[in-house]
Protein backbone atom coordinates (compact mmCIF):
# COMPACT_ATOMS: atom_id res chain seq x y z
CA UNK A 1 0.00 0.00 0.00
CA UNK A 2 2.75 2.45 0.91
CA UNK A 3 4.46 1.66 -2.38
CA UNK A 4 1.58 3.51 -4.05
CA UNK A 5 2.19 6.61 -1.92
CA UNK A 6 5.91 6.30 -2.66
CA UNK A 7 5.14 6.16 -6.39
CA UNK A 8 2.77 9.16 -6.17
CA UNK A 9 5.42 11.19 -4.36
CA UNK A 10 7.87 10.41 -7.16
CA UNK A 11 5.40 11.23 -9.95
CA UNK A 12 3.72 14.28 -8.45
CA UNK A 13 6.53 15.78 -6.37
CA UNK A 14 9.79 14.29 -7.70
CA UNK A 15 10.53 12.91 -4.23
CA UNK A 16 12.15 9.48 -4.13
CA UNK A 17 11.31 8.40 -0.61
CA UNK A 18 13.81 5.71 0.40
CA UNK A 19 12.64 4.19 3.66
CA UNK A 20 9.19 2.63 3.21
CA UNK A 21 9.17 1.54 6.89
CA UNK A 22 9.48 5.16 7.92
CA UNK A 23 6.64 6.18 5.63
CA UNK A 24 4.49 3.44 7.15
CA UNK A 25 5.40 4.53 10.69
CA UNK A 26 4.26 8.10 9.89
CA UNK A 27 0.85 6.68 8.92
CA UNK A 28 0.26 4.15 11.66
CA UNK A 29 -1.77 4.86 14.75
CA UNK A 30 -0.97 3.28 18.15
CA UNK A 31 -4.12 1.14 18.43
CA UNK A 32 -3.53 -0.38 15.00
CA UNK A 33 -0.28 -1.78 16.40
CA UNK A 34 -2.01 -3.30 19.43
CA UNK A 35 -4.46 -5.04 17.11
CA UNK A 36 -1.79 -6.21 14.62
CA UNK A 37 0.95 -8.08 16.50
CA UNK A 38 2.62 -8.84 13.17
CA UNK A 39 3.39 -5.12 12.57
CA UNK A 40 6.96 -4.48 13.66
CA UNK A 41 7.33 -0.67 13.43
CA UNK A 42 6.37 2.23 15.68
CA UNK A 43 3.39 4.56 15.66
CA UNK A 44 3.42 8.10 14.27
CA UNK A 45 3.79 10.00 17.53
CA UNK A 46 7.57 10.47 17.66
CA UNK A 47 7.58 11.58 14.03
CA UNK A 48 4.76 13.99 14.82
CA UNK A 49 6.91 15.50 17.61
CA UNK A 50 9.70 16.03 15.09
CA UNK A 51 7.52 17.22 12.21
CA UNK A 52 5.71 19.78 14.36
CA UNK A 53 9.04 21.53 15.01
CA UNK A 54 10.18 21.19 11.39
CA UNK A 55 6.94 22.86 10.26
CA UNK A 56 7.51 25.75 12.70
CA UNK A 57 11.03 26.44 11.50
CA UNK A 58 10.39 25.88 7.79
CA UNK A 59 7.44 28.28 7.81
CA UNK A 60 9.29 30.91 9.86
CA UNK A 61 12.37 30.78 7.61
CA UNK A 62 10.23 31.08 4.48
CA UNK A 63 8.19 34.03 5.78
CA UNK A 64 11.28 35.80 7.16
CA UNK A 65 12.99 35.71 3.76
CA UNK A 66 9.90 36.26 1.63
CA UNK A 67 8.69 39.37 3.48
CA UNK A 68 11.81 41.35 4.40
CA UNK A 69 9.78 44.47 5.23
CA UNK A 70 7.20 42.90 7.50
CA UNK A 71 7.52 43.33 11.24
CA UNK A 72 7.37 40.32 13.56
CA UNK A 73 3.72 41.00 14.35
CA UNK A 74 2.62 40.47 10.74
CA UNK A 75 4.95 37.51 10.30
CA UNK A 76 3.54 35.86 13.43
CA UNK A 77 -0.03 36.51 12.34
CA UNK A 78 0.46 34.86 8.95
CA UNK A 79 2.39 31.98 10.49
CA UNK A 80 -0.44 31.30 12.95
CA UNK A 81 -2.96 31.11 10.10
CA UNK A 82 -0.70 28.62 8.26
CA UNK A 83 0.60 26.38 11.04
CA UNK A 84 -2.69 25.11 12.47
CA UNK A 85 -5.14 22.24 12.44
CA UNK A 86 -7.42 23.07 9.51
CA UNK A 87 -4.57 24.09 7.20
CA UNK A 88 -2.58 20.91 7.94
CA UNK A 89 -5.71 18.76 7.57
CA UNK A 90 -6.31 20.26 4.12
CA UNK A 91 -2.71 19.46 3.10
CA UNK A 92 -3.08 15.88 4.39
CA UNK A 93 -6.19 15.42 2.26
CA UNK A 94 -4.44 16.88 -0.76
CA UNK A 95 -1.71 14.25 -0.36
CA UNK A 96 -4.40 11.57 0.34
CA UNK A 97 -2.84 10.67 3.69
CA UNK A 98 -6.39 9.99 4.90
CA UNK A 99 -6.53 7.01 2.52
CA UNK A 100 -3.26 5.53 3.76
CA UNK A 101 -3.48 5.86 7.55
CA UNK A 102 -3.63 2.56 9.50
CA UNK A 103 -6.10 3.06 12.33
CA UNK A 104 -7.29 0.99 15.26
CA UNK A 105 -10.80 -0.38 14.85
CA UNK A 106 -12.31 1.97 17.43
CA UNK A 107 -10.84 5.05 15.74
CA UNK A 108 -12.03 3.82 12.35
CA UNK A 109 -15.58 3.37 13.63
CA UNK A 110 -15.59 6.79 15.31
CA UNK A 111 -14.68 8.48 12.01
CA UNK A 112 -11.09 9.48 12.85
CA UNK A 113 -10.07 9.07 9.19
CA UNK A 114 -11.93 12.27 8.35
CA UNK A 115 -11.17 14.15 11.56
CA UNK A 116 -9.06 17.30 11.18
CA UNK A 117 -7.13 16.69 14.40
CA UNK A 118 -5.93 13.26 13.19
CA UNK A 119 -5.12 14.62 9.73
CA UNK A 120 -3.09 17.41 11.34
CA UNK A 121 -1.04 14.81 13.26
CA UNK A 122 -0.49 12.80 10.07
CA UNK A 123 0.75 15.84 8.19
CA UNK A 124 3.29 16.60 10.92
CA UNK A 125 4.39 12.94 11.12
CA UNK A 126 4.76 12.79 7.34
CA UNK A 127 6.91 15.95 7.37
CA UNK A 128 9.01 14.45 10.19
CA UNK A 129 9.56 11.32 8.09
CA UNK A 130 10.35 13.36 4.98
CA UNK A 131 12.90 15.39 6.97
CA UNK A 132 14.66 12.21 8.17
CA UNK A 133 14.56 10.52 4.78
CA UNK A 134 15.41 13.48 2.54
CA UNK A 135 16.72 16.36 4.65
CA UNK A 136 15.81 20.00 5.16
CA UNK A 137 16.20 21.19 1.59
CA UNK A 138 13.76 18.67 0.11
CA UNK A 139 11.28 19.53 2.88
CA UNK A 140 11.57 23.24 2.03
CA UNK A 141 11.06 22.65 -1.70
CA UNK A 142 8.12 20.37 -1.02
CA UNK A 143 6.49 22.90 1.34
CA UNK A 144 7.04 25.70 -1.15
CA UNK A 145 5.18 23.75 -3.79
CA UNK A 146 2.41 22.35 -1.55
CA UNK A 147 1.95 25.04 1.07
CA UNK A 148 3.70 28.35 0.53
CA UNK A 149 2.24 28.97 -2.96
CA UNK A 150 -1.15 29.01 -1.25
CA UNK A 151 -0.25 32.28 0.50
CA UNK A 152 -0.66 34.14 -2.79
CA UNK A 153 -3.87 32.30 -3.57
CA UNK A 154 -5.34 33.68 -0.31
CA UNK A 155 -5.82 30.12 1.01
CA UNK A 156 -4.92 30.95 4.62
CA UNK A 157 -7.28 33.94 4.75
CA UNK A 158 -10.15 31.58 5.52
CA UNK A 159 -8.50 30.78 8.86
CA UNK A 160 -8.25 34.44 9.89
CA UNK A 161 -11.10 36.32 11.56
CA UNK A 162 -10.71 39.59 9.61
CA UNK A 163 -13.76 41.26 11.13
CA UNK A 164 -12.19 41.00 14.60
CA UNK A 165 -8.78 42.05 13.29
CA UNK A 166 -10.20 45.10 11.54
CA UNK A 167 -12.12 46.11 14.65
CA UNK A 168 -9.05 45.67 16.86
CA UNK A 169 -6.93 47.76 14.51
CA UNK A 170 -9.47 50.55 14.03
CA UNK A 171 -10.14 50.80 17.76
CA UNK A 172 -6.50 50.76 18.83
CA UNK A 173 -6.72 54.44 19.87
CA UNK A 174 -10.31 54.34 21.15
CA UNK A 175 -13.86 53.59 20.09
CA UNK A 176 -14.94 54.22 16.49
CA UNK A 177 -18.15 53.31 14.69
CA UNK A 178 -17.69 50.40 12.27
CA UNK A 179 -20.67 49.70 10.00
CA UNK A 180 -21.38 47.00 7.40
CA UNK A 181 -23.98 48.19 4.85
CA UNK A 182 -25.62 46.19 2.07
CA UNK A 183 -25.11 48.01 -1.24
CA UNK A 184 -26.49 45.39 -3.60
CA UNK A 185 -28.14 41.97 -3.83
CA UNK A 186 -28.38 40.13 -7.16
CA UNK A 187 -29.86 36.76 -8.07
CA UNK A 188 -27.38 34.75 -10.16
CA UNK A 189 -29.58 31.64 -10.36
CA UNK A 190 -32.76 30.31 -8.80
CA UNK A 191 -31.00 29.37 -5.60
CA UNK A 192 -28.05 31.72 -5.51
CA UNK A 193 -27.57 35.39 -4.80
CA UNK A 194 -24.56 37.64 -4.61
CA UNK A 195 -24.43 40.28 -1.91
CA UNK A 196 -22.27 43.39 -1.97
CA UNK A 197 -21.38 44.84 1.43
CA UNK A 198 -19.51 48.01 2.26
CA UNK A 199 -17.58 48.46 5.49
CA UNK A 200 -17.13 52.00 6.80
CA UNK A 201 -15.56 53.62 9.85
CA UNK A 202 -17.21 56.72 11.32
CA UNK A 203 -19.14 57.08 8.07
CA UNK A 204 -16.05 56.90 5.81
CA UNK A 205 -16.12 53.95 3.36
CA UNK A 206 -13.12 51.61 3.58
CA UNK A 207 -13.83 48.72 1.21
CA UNK A 208 -16.56 46.60 -0.38
CA UNK A 209 -16.82 42.81 -0.51
CA UNK A 210 -18.98 40.31 -2.36
CA UNK A 211 -20.22 36.91 -1.23
CA UNK A 212 -23.01 34.38 -1.55
CA UNK A 213 -24.24 35.32 1.92
CA UNK A 214 -24.14 38.63 3.75
CA UNK A 215 -21.74 37.00 6.22
CA UNK A 216 -19.29 36.02 3.48
CA UNK A 217 -19.56 39.45 1.87
CA UNK A 218 -18.85 41.14 5.24
CA UNK A 219 -15.79 38.94 5.77
CA UNK A 220 -14.47 39.77 2.31
CA UNK A 221 -15.03 43.52 2.90
CA UNK A 222 -13.26 43.31 6.28
CA UNK A 223 -10.31 41.45 4.74
CA UNK A 224 -9.91 43.98 1.92
CA UNK A 225 -10.16 46.92 4.34
CA UNK A 226 -7.68 45.35 6.78
CA UNK A 227 -5.16 44.42 4.12
CA UNK A 228 -5.28 47.83 2.43
CA UNK A 229 -4.78 49.54 5.83
CA UNK A 230 -1.80 47.23 6.53
CA UNK A 231 -0.20 47.96 3.17
CA UNK A 232 -0.27 51.76 3.65
CA UNK B 1 31.80 46.89 20.46
CA UNK B 2 30.39 44.02 18.38
CA UNK B 3 33.90 43.30 17.07
CA UNK B 4 34.68 42.06 20.58
CA UNK B 5 31.75 39.63 20.52
CA UNK B 6 32.79 38.55 17.03
CA UNK B 7 36.32 37.88 18.33
CA UNK B 8 35.01 35.96 21.37
CA UNK B 9 32.83 33.78 19.13
CA UNK B 10 35.91 32.95 17.05
CA UNK B 11 38.12 32.20 20.06
CA UNK B 12 35.63 30.37 22.27
CA UNK B 13 33.39 28.70 19.68
CA UNK B 14 35.34 28.68 16.40
CA UNK B 15 32.53 30.66 14.77
CA UNK B 16 33.62 33.30 12.26
CA UNK B 17 30.58 35.52 12.19
CA UNK B 18 30.64 37.45 8.91
CA UNK B 19 27.96 40.11 9.05
CA UNK B 20 28.62 42.49 11.96
CA UNK B 21 25.49 44.51 11.08
CA UNK B 22 23.38 41.40 11.61
CA UNK B 23 25.04 40.73 14.97
CA UNK B 24 24.31 44.32 16.00
CA UNK B 25 20.67 44.02 14.87
CA UNK B 26 20.24 40.94 17.07
CA UNK B 27 21.36 43.01 20.06
CA UNK B 28 19.52 46.25 19.48
CA UNK B 29 16.24 47.11 21.09
CA UNK B 30 13.54 49.21 19.35
CA UNK B 31 13.73 52.24 21.68
CA UNK B 32 17.51 52.48 21.26
CA UNK B 33 16.85 53.13 17.57
CA UNK B 34 14.34 55.88 18.30
CA UNK B 35 16.90 57.58 20.51
CA UNK B 36 19.82 57.13 18.06
CA UNK B 37 18.81 58.49 14.65
CA UNK B 38 22.33 57.71 13.39
CA UNK B 39 21.78 53.95 13.78
CA UNK B 40 20.79 52.54 10.41
CA UNK B 41 19.85 48.90 11.16
CA UNK B 42 16.74 47.20 12.49
CA UNK B 43 15.82 46.00 15.97
CA UNK B 44 16.02 42.39 17.15
CA UNK B 45 12.36 41.46 16.81
CA UNK B 46 12.35 39.90 13.34
CA UNK B 47 15.46 37.88 14.22
CA UNK B 48 13.76 36.77 17.43
CA UNK B 49 10.79 35.51 15.37
CA UNK B 50 13.21 33.48 13.27
CA UNK B 51 15.41 32.26 16.13
CA UNK B 52 12.44 31.10 18.21
CA UNK B 53 11.50 28.65 15.44
CA UNK B 54 15.12 27.60 14.85
CA UNK B 55 15.44 26.78 18.57
CA UNK B 56 12.27 24.66 18.44
CA UNK B 57 13.43 22.59 15.49
CA UNK B 58 17.08 22.27 16.53
CA UNK B 59 16.10 21.03 19.98
CA UNK B 60 13.46 18.63 18.64
CA UNK B 61 15.85 17.15 16.05
CA UNK B 62 18.58 16.68 18.65
CA UNK B 63 16.28 15.00 21.20
CA UNK B 64 14.62 12.81 18.55
CA UNK B 65 17.99 11.42 17.45
CA UNK B 66 19.62 11.31 20.87
CA UNK B 67 16.81 9.36 22.58
CA UNK B 68 15.52 6.83 20.03
CA UNK B 69 13.63 4.86 22.68
CA UNK B 70 11.78 7.74 24.32
CA UNK B 71 8.13 8.27 23.53
CA UNK B 72 6.88 11.70 22.44
CA UNK B 73 5.66 12.46 25.98
CA UNK B 74 9.16 12.28 27.46
CA UNK B 75 10.68 14.11 24.50
CA UNK B 76 8.14 16.91 24.86
CA UNK B 77 8.72 17.14 28.60
CA UNK B 78 12.48 17.56 28.23
CA UNK B 79 12.06 19.99 25.34
CA UNK B 80 9.74 22.16 27.44
CA UNK B 81 12.32 22.34 30.24
CA UNK B 82 15.01 23.39 27.70
CA UNK B 83 13.16 25.79 25.41
CA UNK B 84 11.98 28.36 27.94
CA UNK B 85 12.71 31.73 29.47
CA UNK B 86 15.08 30.86 32.33
CA UNK B 87 17.15 28.41 30.30
CA UNK B 88 17.58 30.87 27.41
CA UNK B 89 18.39 33.72 29.83
CA UNK B 90 21.14 31.59 31.39
CA UNK B 91 22.61 30.89 27.92
CA UNK B 92 22.49 34.61 27.06
CA UNK B 93 24.44 35.43 30.23
CA UNK B 94 26.98 32.72 29.48
CA UNK B 95 27.61 34.35 26.09
CA UNK B 96 27.58 37.83 27.78
CA UNK B 97 24.80 39.08 25.50
CA UNK B 98 23.61 41.15 28.48
CA UNK B 99 26.79 43.24 28.16
CA UNK B 100 26.31 43.92 24.47
CA UNK B 101 22.62 44.74 24.15
CA UNK B 102 21.79 48.32 23.07
CA UNK B 103 18.78 49.44 25.07
CA UNK B 104 16.58 52.51 25.14
CA UNK B 105 17.15 54.73 28.17
CA UNK B 106 13.85 53.79 29.83
CA UNK B 107 14.59 50.06 29.57
CA UNK B 108 18.10 50.61 30.91
CA UNK B 109 16.79 52.49 33.94
CA UNK B 110 14.14 49.86 34.63
CA UNK B 111 16.78 47.12 34.76
CA UNK B 112 15.91 45.31 31.50
CA UNK B 113 19.57 44.35 31.01
CA UNK B 114 19.23 41.78 33.80
CA UNK B 115 15.67 40.73 33.07
CA UNK B 116 15.19 37.11 32.02
CA UNK B 117 12.46 37.95 29.50
CA UNK B 118 14.79 40.35 27.62
CA UNK B 119 17.68 37.89 27.77
CA UNK B 120 15.43 35.17 26.37
CA UNK B 121 14.56 37.42 23.39
CA UNK B 122 18.25 38.18 22.83
CA UNK B 123 19.17 34.50 22.81
CA UNK B 124 16.53 33.79 20.17
CA UNK B 125 17.57 36.82 18.10
CA UNK B 126 21.22 35.79 18.31
CA UNK B 127 20.34 32.25 17.14
CA UNK B 128 18.29 33.76 14.29
CA UNK B 129 21.31 35.84 13.24
CA UNK B 130 23.66 32.85 13.55
CA UNK B 131 21.32 30.79 11.38
CA UNK B 132 21.31 33.45 8.65
CA UNK B 133 25.04 34.07 8.82
CA UNK B 134 26.29 30.50 9.19
CA UNK B 135 23.48 28.06 8.40
CA UNK B 136 21.78 25.18 10.18
CA UNK B 137 24.83 22.99 10.73
CA UNK B 138 26.85 25.62 12.58
CA UNK B 139 23.78 26.39 14.72
CA UNK B 140 23.44 22.70 15.60
CA UNK B 141 27.11 22.36 16.53
CA UNK B 142 26.99 25.53 18.59
CA UNK B 143 23.85 24.41 20.44
CA UNK B 144 25.36 21.00 21.09
CA UNK B 145 28.34 22.61 22.74
CA UNK B 146 26.47 25.37 24.63
CA UNK B 147 23.12 23.81 25.37
CA UNK B 148 22.71 20.10 24.72
CA UNK B 149 25.71 19.03 26.84
CA UNK B 150 23.86 20.53 29.79
CA UNK B 151 21.24 17.76 29.55
CA UNK B 152 23.75 15.29 30.98
CA UNK B 153 24.83 17.76 33.64
CA UNK B 154 21.21 17.86 34.87
CA UNK B 155 21.04 21.60 34.14
CA UNK B 156 17.43 21.58 32.94
CA UNK B 157 16.22 19.62 35.96
CA UNK B 158 16.03 22.87 37.92
CA UNK B 159 13.23 24.01 35.59
CA UNK B 160 11.15 20.88 36.17
CA UNK B 161 8.81 20.46 39.14
CA UNK B 162 9.65 16.83 39.90
CA UNK B 163 7.56 16.66 43.06
CA UNK B 164 4.42 17.41 41.02
CA UNK B 165 5.49 15.07 38.24
CA UNK B 166 6.13 12.21 40.64
CA UNK B 167 2.77 12.75 42.33
CA UNK B 168 0.97 12.87 38.97
CA UNK B 169 2.64 9.67 37.86
CA UNK B 170 2.10 7.75 41.11
CA UNK B 171 -1.55 8.80 41.30
CA UNK B 172 -2.41 8.03 37.68
CA UNK B 173 -4.54 5.05 38.78
CA UNK B 174 -5.88 6.57 41.99
CA UNK B 175 -4.79 8.06 45.30
CA UNK B 176 -1.62 6.76 46.98
CA UNK B 177 0.24 8.06 50.04
CA UNK B 178 3.46 9.84 49.14
CA UNK B 179 5.72 10.72 52.07
CA UNK B 180 8.99 12.65 52.37
CA UNK B 181 10.94 11.61 55.50
CA UNK B 182 14.14 13.13 56.89
CA UNK B 183 16.73 10.36 57.33
CA UNK B 184 19.74 12.48 58.23
CA UNK B 185 20.99 16.02 58.90
CA UNK B 186 24.69 16.82 59.05
CA UNK B 187 26.58 20.06 59.64
CA UNK B 188 29.29 20.52 56.99
CA UNK B 189 30.40 23.95 58.26
CA UNK B 190 29.23 26.59 60.73
CA UNK B 191 26.52 27.84 58.35
CA UNK B 192 25.82 24.84 56.21
CA UNK B 193 23.99 21.57 56.67
CA UNK B 194 23.21 18.67 54.40
CA UNK B 195 19.82 17.00 54.68
CA UNK B 196 18.98 13.51 53.46
CA UNK B 197 15.34 12.90 52.57
CA UNK B 198 13.63 9.69 51.54
CA UNK B 199 10.51 9.62 49.40
CA UNK B 200 8.17 6.65 49.75
CA UNK B 201 4.84 5.58 48.31
CA UNK B 202 2.38 3.70 50.52
CA UNK B 203 5.27 2.99 52.90
CA UNK B 204 7.61 1.60 50.21
CA UNK B 205 10.87 3.60 49.80
CA UNK B 206 11.51 4.89 46.26
CA UNK B 207 14.64 7.04 46.47
CA UNK B 208 16.70 9.33 48.68
CA UNK B 209 18.02 12.82 47.92
CA UNK B 210 20.49 15.21 49.51
CA UNK B 211 20.42 19.00 49.63
CA UNK B 212 21.40 22.06 51.63
CA UNK B 213 17.76 22.57 52.60
CA UNK B 214 15.00 20.03 53.19
CA UNK B 215 13.24 21.51 50.16
CA UNK B 216 16.26 20.87 47.91
CA UNK B 217 16.69 17.37 49.31
CA UNK B 218 13.02 16.60 48.65
CA UNK B 219 13.30 17.83 45.07
CA UNK B 220 16.38 15.67 44.49
CA UNK B 221 14.62 12.60 45.98
CA UNK B 222 11.55 13.24 43.79
CA UNK B 223 13.73 13.59 40.67
CA UNK B 224 15.63 10.38 41.37
CA UNK B 225 12.41 8.47 42.07
CA UNK B 226 10.68 9.84 38.97
CA UNK B 227 13.61 9.18 36.67
CA UNK B 228 14.15 5.63 37.92
CA UNK B 229 10.41 4.89 37.46
CA UNK B 230 10.61 6.28 33.90
CA UNK B 231 13.63 4.18 33.04
CA UNK B 232 11.97 0.93 34.06
TrEMBL record, chains A, B:
Q: Supply the alphabetized keyword list.
A: Cytoplasm, Endonuclease, Hydrolase, Magnesium, Metal-binding, mRNA processing, Nuclease, RNA-binding, rRNA processing, rRNA-binding, tRNA processing
Substrates-to-products reaction catalysed: Endonucleolytic cleavage to 5'-phosphomonoester
Q: Which Gene Ontology terms cover its molecular function?
A: double-stranded RNA binding; metal ion binding; ribonuclease III activity; rRNA binding
| EC numbers, comma separated | 3.1.26.3
In this chain the RNase III domain maps to 6-135
Q: Which GO terms describe its cellular component?
A: cytoplasm
Give residue ranges for domain DRBM. 161-231
Q: Which domain of life is it from?
A: Bacteria
Instruction: Please list the residues that make up the active site.
Output: 52, 124
Q: Does the keyword Nuclease apply?
A: yes
Q: Which cofactor does it need?
A: Mg(2+)
Entry binding sites for Mg(2+): 48, 121, 124
Mostly located where?
A: cytoplasm
Q: Name one GO biological process term.
A: regulation of gene expression
Q: Which Pfam families match?
A: dsrm (PF00035), Ribonucleas_3_3 (PF14622)
Q: Where in the cell is it found?
A: Cytoplasm
Q: How does it assemble?
A: Homodimer.
Give the NCBIfam families listed for this entry: RNaseIII (TIGR02191)
Q: Extract the PANTHER family matched here.
A: RIBONUCLEASE 3, RIBONUCLEASE III
Q: Give a short account of what the protein does.
A: Digests double-stranded RNA. Involved in the processing of primary rRNA transcript to yield the immediate precursors to the large and small rRNAs (23S and 16S). Processes some mRNAs, and tRNAs when they are encoded in the rRNA operon. Processes pre-crRNA and tracrRNA of type II CRISPR loci if present in the organism.
UniProt similarity note: Belongs to the ribonuclease III family.
Q: What is the protein name for this chain?
A: Ribonuclease 3
Identify the species of origin: Weissella paramesenteroides ATCC 33313
Organism lineage reads as: Bacteria, Bacillati, Bacillota, Bacilli, Lactobacillales
